[in-house]
Specification:
Elements lengths: L4 H19 L9 H15 L6 H30 L11
Length: 94
């Protein structure tokens, strides 16, 4: 399979962004859902690079799964808040 040069460069850029987000010690729990999903997409883009090593593949696969779990926790929290809407239309503490 031949890659278009521009596409390959785009994948490499996304891979570098993924590496940067993985190496930063930032609490994903404080990030917005969209931000964590963007990081998952960056990991996927890196995994799609045909020149990635097997070790890096496992590293980014595990990191992507960890970030997906964080996304699921955020969605669960939002769903629980939605179920606790008071009769006045505001959110109550769960």
């Amino acid at each position: 399979m031949h890659l278009v040069k521009g596409n390959s460069m785009n994948q490499n850029k996304k891979a570098q962004e993924c590496v940067q987000t993985l190496d930063q010690d930032q609490p994903e729990e404080s990030l917005r859902l969209e931000e964590v999903l963007a990081q998952v997409e960056q990991c996927i883009a890196y995994l799609e690079n045909p020149q990635i090593s097997l070790e890096d593949s496992f590293r980014y696969y595990e990191e992507g799964i960890r970030k997906l779990r964080i996304c699921n926790e955020k969605v669960d929290r939002i769903e629980k808040q939605m179920l606790v809407i008071s009769s006045q239309g505001g959110l109550e503490d769960a």
